[in-house]
Amino acid sequence: xxxxxxxxxxxxxxxxxxxxxxxxxxxxxxxxxxxxxxxxxxxxxxxxxxxxxxxxxxxxxxxxxxxxxxxxxxxxxxxxxxxxxxxxxxxxxxxxxxxxxxxxxxxxxxx
Length: 111
Prior knowledge:
Blueprint: E1 10-12, E2 14-19, E3 28-31, E4 39-41, E5 48-51, E6 54-57, E7 64-66, E8 76-81
Antiparallel strand pairs: 1-6, 2-3, 2-8, 4-7, 5-6
């Protein structure tokens, strides 16, 4: 079943991850606002675009998976600046691995 993202303007302006005990300067930037380096889009790739330094989704179901680090993040803080519009459908999934289609499935492999 294809589900529309309904005028989903989900903008990742800044996305960073740090271990929960670390200071701000130890953060790892996972989206630079300039490219999709470290990210892999599944299904409807045309649903995503870079616009004014933001990752924007608008269209049929598709997910952007962070694949820039082969080690899973553990005990971390995630900081995201985002904007949605009325009727949007979006979210952030944790502990998932890239998959070609469907809704992300939680990775239960040992860490």
